[in-house]
């Protein structure tokens, strides 16, 4: 009995060393895209002709790097990302000869939320950036000092007299990348006069504002957004930064802070009046089309569920306008190769 | 040691001296006992807290709400090709038949917003459930029969009180029309709260009401099977060679130190090695239990080798001497006497190693087994995941019902572990020999 099983295993190993053709789609990347990607994968898997695609997590950087690692079935076919590919990341693809097509699938809002039992925070993007960025202009605005603000009211007297304590995602997360770009860089350093003057004086670009505080006011809570939700419920004075779908699922316990006077609601994110939102993407590898069965069908499956009342919307995605959906559906068949000029 | 001239003490002096220290010694003993009991009490307290938290969430997670609908099993619409094949049933319109049954149960409301609200009440996997039902009961075709479907997880949350009907409609995930429909279903006693069949027989799903552990459970068994197949023979052979045959020199000493060091290597390192060797170099597919099992085998090998060596060492030398004395060869001594006598210890070590492997996620991260995998693996070459990964994935999903499902899955994992450890104890008791 044991000998037979051992032989069978040995045969299986011997066969597999000849780089077995994979008959299921392999996907990895952003933990924000994962809930939507898995819904699409599961729906495709209900069709008896296709195996259900395997979806791995890991963060946007894993998705973008993983899809570019190389050509062959040992590498993933599709990378999910909640922040757009950078030219440097595309250069890594070119180095490995990987050709990609970029598909945008929808939007996700980034919310600053807190327990319903806690005080309200009605804050501008500039103040939010000022409260959490690592460096702020010094008294004369000729240079930068470490962020000294301990309380929200130190940032702006109109804000609550409450210690700044914010839980948020780590640097591998696309939510974090989008947040620091929208809030710290564009919302604060790009707008605030004193910050602009200090940047000019030190000859730096607004990009330097992207780093978050490390003195305890901002706390990295890992890729697990549910963990942040739990912490906020236990600690009504704290705030958390995460994707809109987690707020949507916990409206009985959490409330979202209005940014620039706009509350994070489904409609406000969809029409663009709520500023802290980012696009969600996936990147499909050309060389695996026609090699791994189901990649084309997986793409097509997205178009069935990303409508205004589709299954993805129930799970918390913010749909694209109709024209953009049509454009992306066209991309799935035309498959334009992503080049550096597209990312400018 | 202060008074070596003990003879100088009279009995009374000795008694007095002992009496003087007695109190101090007794209280020292009392303190020692107290701290020991306090430590055990603290450990038990944490255990109770852990189990309390898991069970209070997990027990409701074992149950869910179902609704019974009268569905017309229309042959043409369910099975358009008429051959009852998987493809034909997939092409059929089971969803519409269920919807008609649901609308009939709600006294046929009209209007788009009403039908949309009704559609959201039952699980999106209901069509599959009806197809499975028809497949199992082909003779019911053509009749109208009551069939049980799962309610959508939002409705389940609502019925459990996680969604308060008094919150403003805009802040709720389900609107007033849906609540009105659910109330109607409750009033007609179509809704039941019972043990979830999806939890044990369903596979991974993004719909909380359909998510189950079957895929992960089978993945765990396949992975552990590969793991024990590789690590047990290899570990025992290594231990026997090192203890019984290898000469004791500098070289075997280095091997021994390395084995002991390997036991302390963080498990994720084995995953990185698995990625580099088995997937990139040998070109094996990602996410398969075969690679997972090999990686976990490498991780558990040191545990098995160390415990097997200890077991071999505990076999009395007199047994070896007796075997050799009656003319047995070295091989015969080892295989007929030493290994059978050391087997209980070896098996215990192996089972503890397996229990450790069962709970691992870190080494599987690199080789793609920390993934959302719906299809139940049919063999070691199919993509699969394991129980702790399933728990980890569920813990991160936003839907509220996954919180309870997570705890329910933890209960299953704990039961699995307890069975393994209990069998280790049972084996040891049964096979143990005393000299």
Q: What form of chain B results from the Cα inertia axes? A: extended
Cα distance spanning the termini of chain A? 62 Å
Radius of gyration of chain A, CA atoms, in whole angstroms = 23 Å
Q: Could you estimate the helical fraction of the residues of chain A in percent?
A: 25-40%
Number of strands of chain A: 11
Biggest sheet architecture of chain A? 9 strands, mixed
The name of the CATH topology of the largest domain in chain B is MetI-like fold
Class of the largest domain in chain A, according to the CATH hierarchy? Alpha Beta
Instruction: Give the CATH class of the largest domain in chain B.
Output: Mainly Alpha
From the structure above, extract its key features:
heterodimer; A: 344 residues; alpha/beta; D-Maltodextrin-Binding Protein, domain 2; nine-stranded mixed beta sheet; two-stranded antiparallel sheet; 38% helix; B: mainly alpha; MetI-like fold; 4 strands
Commentary on this structure:
Chain A has 344 residues and is α/β, with parallel strands linked by helices. Chain A folds into 2 domains: 21-108 and 278-343, D-Maltodextrin-Binding Protein, domain 2 (3-Layer(aba) Sandwich), CATH 3.40.190; 109-277, Periplasmic binding protein-like II (D-Maltodextrin-Binding Protein, domain 2, 3-Layer(aba) Sandwich), CATH 3.40.190. Chain A has 14 helices and 11 strands. With 435 residues, chain B is mostly helical. Chain B has 3 domains: 8-59; 62-195, no CATH class; 214-431, Orthogonal Bundle (MetI-like fold), CATH 1.10.3720.10. Chain B is 66% helix and 6% strand. Chain B has 18 helices and 4 strands. In chain B, helix 10 crosses helix 17, helix 12 crosses helix 13 (289-313) and helix 15 (330-358) packs antiparallel against helix 18 (401-431). Chain B is extended. At the A-B interface, helix 1, helix 2, strand 2 and helix 10 of A face helix 3, strand 4 and helix 17 of B. Strand 2 of chain A pairs antiparallel with strand 4 of chain B, so a sheet runs across the interface.
């Amino acid at each position: 009995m044991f000998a037979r099983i051992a032989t069978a295993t040995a045969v299986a190993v011997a066969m597999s060393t000849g780089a077995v053709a994979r008959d299921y789609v392999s996907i990895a990347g952003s933990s924000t895209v994962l809930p939507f990607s898995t819904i699409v994968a599961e729906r495709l898997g209900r069709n008896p002709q296709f195996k259900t695609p395997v979806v791995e997590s890991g963060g946007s950087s894993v998705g973008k790097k993983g899809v570019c690692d190389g050509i062959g079935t040992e590498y993933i076919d599709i990378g999910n990302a909640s922040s757009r590919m950078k030219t440097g990341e595309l250069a890594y693809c070119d180095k490995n000869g990987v050709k990609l097509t970029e598909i945008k699938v929808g939007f996700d809002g980034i919310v600053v939320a807190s327990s319903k039992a806690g005080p309200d925070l009605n804050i501008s993007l500039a103040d939010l950036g000022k409260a959490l960025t690592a460096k702020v202009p010094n008294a004369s605005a000729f240079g930068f000092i470490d962020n000294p603000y301990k309380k929200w009211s130190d940032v702006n007297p109109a804000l609550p007299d409450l210690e700044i304590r914010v839980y948020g995602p780590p640097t591998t997360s696309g939510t974090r990348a989008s947040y620091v770009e929208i809030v710290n860089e564009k919302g604060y350093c790009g707008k605030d006069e004193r910050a602009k003057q200090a940047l000019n004086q030190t000859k730096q670009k607004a990009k330097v504002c992207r780093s978050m505080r490390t003195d305890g006011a901002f706390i990295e809570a890992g890729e697990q957004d549910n963990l942040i939700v739990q912490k906020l419920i236990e600690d009504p004075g704290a705030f958390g930064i995460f994707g809109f779908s987690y707020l949507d699922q916990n409206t009985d316990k959490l409330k979202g802070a209005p940014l620039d006077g706009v509350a994070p609601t489904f409609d406000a994110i969809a029409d663009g009046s709520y500023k802290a939102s980012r696009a969600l993407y996936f990147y499909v590898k050309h060389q695996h089309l026609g090699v791994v069965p189901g990649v084309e069908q997986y793409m097509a499956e997205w178009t069935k569920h990303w409508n205004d009342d589709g299954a993805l919307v129930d799970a918390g995605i913010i749909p694209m306008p109709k024209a953009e959906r049509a454009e992306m559906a066209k991309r799935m068949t035309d498959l334009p190769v992503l080049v550096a000029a597209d990312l400018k | 040691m202060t008074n070596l001239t003990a003879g100088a003490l009279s009995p009374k002096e000795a008694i007095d001296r002992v009496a003087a220290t007695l109190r101090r010694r007794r209280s020292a003993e009392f303190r020692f006992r107290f701290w020991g009991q306090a430590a055990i009490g603290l450990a038990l307290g944490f255990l109770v807290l852990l189990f309390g938290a898991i069970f209070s969430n997990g027990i409701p997670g074992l149950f869910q709400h179902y609704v019974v609908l009268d569905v017309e099993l229309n042959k043409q619409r369910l099975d358009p090709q008429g051959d009852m094949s998987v493809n034909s049933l997939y092409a059929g319109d089971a969803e519409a038949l269920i919807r008609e049954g649901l609308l009939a149960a709600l006294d046929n409301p009209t209007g788009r917003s009403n039908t949309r609200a009704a559609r959201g009440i039952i699980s999106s996997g209901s069509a599959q459930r009806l197809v499975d039902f028809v497949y199992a009961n082909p003779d019911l075709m053509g009749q109208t029969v009551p069939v049980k479907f799962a309610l959508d997880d939002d409705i389940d949350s609502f019925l459990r009180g996680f969604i308060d009907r008094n919150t403003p409609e805009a802040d709720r995930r389900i609107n007033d029309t849906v609540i009105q429909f659910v109330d109607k279903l409750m009033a007609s006693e179509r809704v039941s709260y019972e043990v979830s069949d999806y939890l044990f027989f369903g596979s991974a799903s993004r719909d909380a009401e359909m998510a189950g552990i079957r895929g992960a459970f089978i993945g765990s068994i396949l992975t552990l099977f590969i793991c024990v197949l590789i690590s047990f023979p290899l570990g025992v052979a290594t231990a026997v060679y090192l203890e019984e045959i290898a000469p004791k020199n500098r070289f075997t000493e280095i091997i021994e130190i390395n084995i002991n060091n390997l036991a302390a290597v963080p498990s994720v390192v084995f995953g990185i090695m698995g990625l580099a060797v088995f997937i990139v170099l040998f070109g094996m597919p990602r996410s398969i239990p075969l690679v997972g099992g090999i990686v976990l085998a490498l991780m558990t090998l040191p545990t098995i080798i160390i415990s097997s060596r200890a077991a071999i060492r505990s076999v009395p030398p007199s047994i070896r001497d007796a075997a050799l004395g009656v003319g047995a060869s070295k091989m015969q001594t080892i295989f007929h006497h030493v290994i059978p006598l050391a087997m209980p210890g070896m098996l215990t070590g192996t089972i503890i190693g397996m229990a450790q492997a069962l709970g691992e996620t870190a080494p599987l991260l690199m080789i793609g087994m920390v993934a959302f995998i719906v299809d139940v693996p049919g063999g070691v070459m199919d993509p699969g995941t394991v129980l702790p990964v399933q728990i980890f994935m569920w813990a991160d999903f936003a839907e509220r019902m996954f919180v309870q499902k997570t705890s329910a899955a933890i209960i299953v994992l704990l039961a699995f572990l307890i069975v393994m450890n209990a069998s280790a104890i049972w084996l040891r008791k049964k096979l143990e020999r005393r000299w």
